[in-house]
Amino acid sequence: MEPLVDVRDLHFQYDDGTVALDGLNFRLFHGETVAVFGANGSGKTTFVLHLNGLLTGQGAVSVCGMPVERKTLARVRQKIGLVFQDSDNQLFMPTVIEDVAFGPLNLGLDRDEAQARAHAALDEVGMAHVSGKAPYHLSAGEKKRVAIAGILAMRPEILVLDEPTTFLDPPGQTALLELLDRLPQAKILVTHDVDCARVLANRAVFFDKGRIAGEGSVEEVIARFHWDRTPLKRSASSRS
Amino acid sequence: MHHVVLDRWSRGASVIHRRDARAKTVATLMFLVALATAHRSFLTVGLGYFAILVAVMIAARLPLGAALARAAVVLPFTAVFAVISLAAGEPLAAMALVEKSYLSALAVLVLLSTTPLPELLHGLEHMGVPRYLLMVVQFLYRYLFVISEEAQHMRAAAQAKSASMRRVLFDRSKFGAAAGALGVLFARSYAHADGIHQAMLARGFQDRFRTLSRHAFRRADAVFVMAAVVLLAGARFFAEVWI
């Protein structure tokens, strides 16, 4: 079976000399949700920015059989939807409906079709009732859903979610996980939230110093790299 | 924040809001040229033009007092040059400067308060304004929100550490800290703006903003432009010939 995402021997170094990716290999197949774990600075976000050509390193990256290069960027960015950690970065149009239609309009769809797709995507994430609102008036959970709608409106085959549960309260996290679990696309889930990964992912990889140090089931990777929160012993003073 | 208020006002549904962005832009340009070139009769013309703007604001259901106050933001800048003219013994020139600046600002404010910025820019693109110039304006507008958000966060953080801006100009250490904070504000805004740009590229942004709004120059828009011509020329002619 041909992988949806195929990354081979990817290297990337920032201008200040920091080596962010050091010979990375990664594959994502149809129907998979892969959790990407790793310490801060281990190269996770740098890796996802390569998947739709926002960064370009040395090595081979292909998405849905297309090499990620200048002439394929428009098609690649339609196939792979990137949901950023900070929804405020993603929402910039004056109203929610205009923001969600931004991607479809960039794909060259006419206004009617773009609007229809935007409404359908908002409906899918349960946000149809805020379509006329300004994005900056929404709560963090609503912003995240609208940001996901903006990606879904482009009808991608792969969703890449960078820390999707950050900034959300517990009920908001639960609602988001339910939504993501319903979406049929293959997903790459960059997260520190092991509970989120346990619910959604059927495989996990662990990044260390710009390469994959290990992979397996979510529980295997969590156990091998001690990646769960360790219960703290409370001191006597904190109990009083 | 001014831009948030204007953005909210621009989302109205009045007869003025419904006019095509090009019709309103042309009318505003005519207003500015007619006002700027009024010399002998500038006071009377100014009064007539002020009445026209007030009528448009009422038709657009804009909050009159708030809009008039917002346009006054240009006055401190104009006042400097007006004082220089007064000192040079030219009180009429000083009055003309203040009147024309205020009315020009008010006219532009009425345009921005009745036309959402994306529609206005799209209209300007149809009128032949270079696309890259319009993109700069669009980004500038978006990043105004970014800078003000960052500034609010930094202000809250400073207040949480008991900082205050009192006597900042006279206290060397406070002035240094404020200058440093300004530098940090721009560095943070730059990083945030870069994130926004990446998110736009990720959703297929290439080299132009496309909007959902339709641009159809209807008969009502033509009538609006004709009415603007008649009113502006009529007020000027009346002031210069009969008064």
Largest sheet features of chain A: 6 strands, mixed
Structural class of chain A: alpha/beta
* Rg from alpha-carbon coordinates of chain A: 19 Å
Q: Termini of chain A, distance in Å?
A: 60 Å
Report the uncertain regions of chain B.
none
Beta fraction of chain B: under 5%
Q: Note the gap between the termini of chain B.
A: 42 Å
Range of helix content of chain A: 25-40%
Main interface by residue count: A-B, 34 and 25 residues
Q: How are helices and strands ordered from N to C of chain B?
A: HHHHHHHHHH
Question: What attributes does this structure have?
Answer:
heterodimer, A: 240 residues, alpha/beta, six-stranded mixed sheet, four-stranded antiparallel sheet, 10 helices, 10 strands, B: 243 residues, mainly alpha, flat
Characterization of the model:
The complex is a heterodimer of chains A (240) and B (243). By secondary structure, chain A is α/β, with parallel strands linked by helices. Chain A is 37% helix and 25% strand. In chain A, the strands form two sheets. A six-stranded mixed β-sheet of chain A has the order 6-7-8-3-9-10, sandwiched between helices. Chain A has a four-stranded antiparallel β-sheet with strand order 2-1-4-5, covered by helices on one side. In chain A, a hairpin with a 5-residue loop joins strand 1 and strand 2. In chain A, helix 4 runs parallel beside helix 6 and helix 5 packs across helix 6. With 243 residues, chain B is mostly helical. At the A-B interface, helix 2, helix 3, helix 4 and helix 5 of A face helix 8 and helix 9 of B.
